[in-house]
Structure formats: C-alpha cells, structure tokens
Amino acid sequence: MNVIEVQQLRKEFKSYSSRSGLSGAFRDLFTRNYKVLAAVDNITLTVKQGEMVGYIGENGAGKSTTIKMLTGILTPTSGTIRVNGMDPHKQREEFVQTIGVVFGQRSQLWWDIAVQESFRLLKKVYRVSDEDYENHMGHVIETLEIGPLLDKPVRKLSLGQRMRCELAAALIHNPPLLFLDEPTIGLDVLVKLKIRKFLKEINENYKTTIILTTHDITDIEALCERVVLLDEGKIVYDGRLDKLQASAVEGKQVEFEFLLEVSGDDLPGNAKVHWEQKDATTWKANVDGDERVISELISVVVQKNPIKNVRINEISTEEIIRKIYEEGMATS
C-alpha cells in the first residue's frame, strides 16, 4: 500500500528584483521585474507503508518545499499529490489527523506554559480519548525520558529537551505517517541516539512511515534503508542506501602495513592501481575498480610480502553524495 503518491509535482515561486536608482525605484511602483523559479521540478515519488525514507539534498534543493506540499502547507503549481489517500490541501482538516510533523526550527509547543499543558491542548485538538492517550503517551514519555520535563515551561528547556518534547507532541494521536524536517539540528550525540532509537521503535511497533530530511548523514545511515536525493528541485537518485554505497566501490583505498620495509618496485602496479607511500612500512593503494580488482590486488601483495595489517578505507556516504553533486554540476 502506497502512503504517498506524487506525480509530476512542481512548485514555482516568483523572484522579484529591484531596479537601481531613484528612477528605477519609481518604475518599480508600477511594474516589477521578476523571474519564475522552480523550487520543485516535476518530481514523481511513491512511499509504501512502514518505510523510513531519507529525503536529502543541499540547501535550496527543494526538500522543505516538498514536505510543505505533502503536509498541505503549500499548494503545488502543478502535479498531483495523494497522502494517506487524501489531497493534503483540499482535505486539510481530515488530513492533519493522519500525520505528525516536526520542524527542527519551529515549535508546536506553547512557549510559556508547561509541556504537559501543551500535550493536553493537542490531545483536545486531535480528539484523542483519555484511554488512548494514557496507553500510547505513557510509552512515548518513558522512552524519550521526558517525564521530569512535563511540568516545566517550554522556554526553560534546553534544545535537546525541547526537541524530544516536540517529537512526543507530534505523536500524541499516533499518526501512521511522520514527517521530520531537520529534527536533530544542533543536538548533541546522546540526544540524537535517543531520538534514533525511539524512531526505530515506533517504526517497528506501529509500522509508522517516516520521511526524514536532514543534513546529518549519520541520521540517514542509522535509520533509513532508502534515500531520495534531490538536486535543484529534481530527484537524482531514488533507491536503497546500500546500493548507493556499493555503486561507489570504485575509488576505494587499500592500506597495507608491512612487517618489513618495502620499496615501490616490489609492489604490483597497473593502470587501475596507484601507490602512495605513507611511511617506510606502510603503503596506500588507490584502486580504480570493483571488488574483484581489490581482491586480486590484496591476494598478489599478500603472497609476495609479509603483512602486518590490511585496511580497506570505505568512502563515506557523505563523500558519495558530494561526488554525485559535483558530477551533476560538471555535466550541467
């Protein structure tokens, strides 16, 4: 079952520019210069129930604009959207009962009242029964470790404490679909780990579908099997994270630590292998090839030289994504 179905989705904005000088300012009173920019450029996307999808891209790529259209905040210029079987913009009142949203830089909690009072207000808004609230939120509060924070005003919470409370607030009505837009921005490592663990639990226990946008690639690696990579409003990759990582096997670096000093003449070389000396007993091989080429290289080197250690330095997901962007800019 598809929770999200998007076809040829597009969102355009007008960008105005002012003329210089007094005469230019006077002319701007009557006519304005502008150009039309596509923040989201005809994307097609489907998300199945229970998936955890990383929606990533550089600043200005169109991530937040997409999320705002999927949640009904913005109306698309063209294309169709079906989320939980509804049109987010046209069926807004009914639709918001089926989603939870956390924007890392915006709060849905009331600033000057206690956290638990915000929760009670949201409980009324979403028409959650006392029994459902106690059963579900008891687990949420315990897992996120926010019990001691419930009687404190939001303005007295640290950023990490507030974000855990924001996440709990988005789940008061136990929605089947959760949108997280930069939920871990500015948080320390321990708080991030707690939030990641909790998101995994609700995904496993309730089959909650989660759409995550973030610049922290470690969040994506820890939570998402699938990633959608956006660049200038277009989807440039949509698939499994492990396949994206596997496709970058070319360019790996193999580091050999020998028991004795080795000269470059003793090492096998060809067009796909380039050696770099680190010290008297350590050499790095930059390999342009797949696993087979790497395996053959290690086999030949180990047969001819006594080895203390061999390390294959994996390319990080962040480096893979950076490379995709650079190649895209080079061909555009």
UniProtKB/TrEMBL annotation:
UniProt source species: Anaerobacillus alkaliphilus
Protein name, per record: ATP-binding cassette domain-containing protein
Domain ABC transporter: residue ranges: 24-257
Domain of life, source organism: Bacteria
One annotated GO molecular function: ATP hydrolysis activity
PROSITE patterns: ABC_TRANSPORTER_2 (PS50893)
InterPro entries from the UniProt entry: AAA+_ATPase (IPR003593), ABC_transporter-like_ATP-bd (IPR003439), ABC_transporter_ATP-binding (IPR050763), P-loop_NTPase (IPR027417)
Record key words, sorted: ATP-binding, Nucleotide-binding, Transport
